[in-house]
UniProtKB/TrEMBL annotation:
Organism for this UniProt entry: Suillus subaureus
SUPFAM superfamilies in the cross-refs: PLP-dependent transferases
Annotated GO biological process: transsulfuration
Protein family (similarity comment): Belongs to the trans-sulfuration enzymes family.
Protein name: Cys/Met metabolism PLP-dependent enzyme-domain-containing protein
UniProt KW keywords: Pyridoxal phosphate
UniProt superkingdom: Eukaryota
Keyword Ubl conjugation: no
UniProt-listed InterPro entries: Cys/Met-Metab_PyrdxlP-dep_enz, PyrdxlP-dep_Trfase, PyrdxlP-dep_Trfase_major, PyrdxlP-dep_Trfase_small
N6-(pyridoxal phosphate)lysine, modified sites: 207
Length: 400
């Protein structure tokens, strides 16, 4: 391949060091022009210069023909994303466009999926509707068969708890199937699903990679150049490449991703630990939070080692997720809490941005538990977020 920047380490997943390098985020797209990427919204490019009868090859990411295939700012973004995801990254117009493209790529005989982000279930049903053969949907805990695609989301919507990636990798590989991991809630440096046996990784880039709630992007990461080429060709013909302006905004965002995500993870985990201590009976209190209001906090950091010996702390080597859930004792509390908060945006269908968000989950999925509130933690001062939560919890418990 002509583009040396897209070449990544070919060592085995276990022997590689996985980290989110600030140097890669800041300089990973060097060699293709200025330090800050220029805004470019060009679509057709001049491909054949006078006197050069050969023209260019569409697969060369440095030579652009038509922005449905590639263009400079998107290729720059993909160079950085390939490095920081330790694989080969291809970008899409949205997370769901990436999810759909993965289905087209894997052509599964059956799909094993349980719970998780509602939109992915929608993408799967849209995909299966368009097929002539039945593509049954089975549960993650059912027996797997050859040709299955195991679709694993971890950490998981809406609870914020983790699943054992290695366990599902072993289970699906034993029958010759593939493991697809939706790692949106666990971006680098929090976890690296390839290390635990994933075959393909999805990120909804609008969440932590973008971090500023202002662009749309989906990312698929694969392990070989050959798979990248296949995805690239499919994308060229499905026409679902990420837009130029979004690519430009994403480069801007990536420069600080390591600072944002680590901070969000640390603040989120601190809040989780603090709130979990307030799960006390009515009449008691913890640090000013009245008891009897919160009945459970859901988060990877609170998960105990399970029967298979799984504990999320090894899998989430770079920090726990910055997204978690709390279960309240009354529906009225869950309805009021997000609105009683000053430093959290409401209602929040998205997550992962620099601003904290809170939503009663039933607002985004009517089938969910009305007592559940989901919180995404941003980069505000954690002391302010605590004060805000404490005050709001006191107010709702008094019916203010
Ligand atoms: C947001 C999200 C998606 C979908 O991504 P879009 O960019 O909104 O299309 C998929 N999976 C998870 C876990 C998400 O949070």
């Amino acid at each position: 391949m002509p583009n040396a920047c897209l070449r990544v380490n070919s060592m085995s997943p276990q022997s590689q060091t996985y980290q989110l390098s600030g140097t890669h985020l800041v300089h990973g797209d060097r060699g293709s022009g200025s330090e800050a990427a220029p805004i470019s919204v060009a679509s057709p490019f001049r491909t054949v210069s006078h006197g050069d009868p050969k023209g260019v090859e569409a697969m060369d990411p440095d030579k652009h023909i038509y922005s449905r295939y590639s263009q400079d700012v998107t290729s720059r973004v993909e160079q950085i994303l390939s490095k920081v995801n330790h694989g080969y990254a291809v970008t899409y117009a949205s997370g769901l466009a990436a999810a759909f493209s993965a289905l087209v790529h894997f052509k599964p005989k059956r799909i094993a999926i349980s719970r998780g982000y509602t939109g992915c279930h929608g993408a799967i049903s849209t995909y299966t509707k368009g097929r002539f053969v039945d593509t049954p949907i089975v549960d993650l805990d059912d027996e797997f068969q050859e040709g299955d695609l195991c679709w694993l989301e971890s950490p998981l919507h809406p609870t914020g708890e983790s699943r054992n990636i290695q366990y599902y990798a072993d289970k699906i590989h034993a029958v010759g199937g593939k493991l697809f991991v939706d790692s949106t809630l666990g971006p680098p440096p929090l976890q690296y699903p390839f290390k635990w046996g994933a075959d393909c990784v999805l990120h909804s880039g609008i969440k932590y990679f973008a971090g500023h709630s202002d662009l749309f992007c989906g990312i698929l990461v694969v392990k070989t150049e050959d798979e990248r080429k296949q995805l690239w060709h499919d994308r060229a013909h499905m026409g679902n490449i990420m837009g130029s302006m979004d690519s430009w905004l994403l480069i801007r965002s990536l420069r600080t991703m390591h600072l944002r995500v680590s901070r969000q993870s640390a603040s989120g985990t601190e809040l989780v630990q603090w709130l979990s201590r307030a799960v006390v009976p009515e009449g008691q209190e913890y640090d000013g939070i009245p008891g009897g209001v919160i009945t459970k906090v859901g988060h990877s950091s609170l998960q105990e080692t399970d029967a298979n010996g799984f504990n999320p702390s090894a899998q989430m080597e770079g920090g726990f997720n910055a997204y978690f859930s709390i279960l309240l004792s009354k529906e009225e509390y869950a309805e009021k809490l997000p609105h009683a908060l000053d430093h959290f945006h409401v209602p929040a269908t998205s997550l992962g941005g620099v601003e904290s968000l809170a939503v009663q989950h039933i607002r985004t999925d009517p089938k969910e538990n009305p007592l559940l509130v989901c919180l995404s933690i941003g980069v505000e001062e954690v002391a302010d977020l605590k004060n805000d939560l404490r005050r709001a919890l006191v107010e709702i418990s008094k019916g203010i």
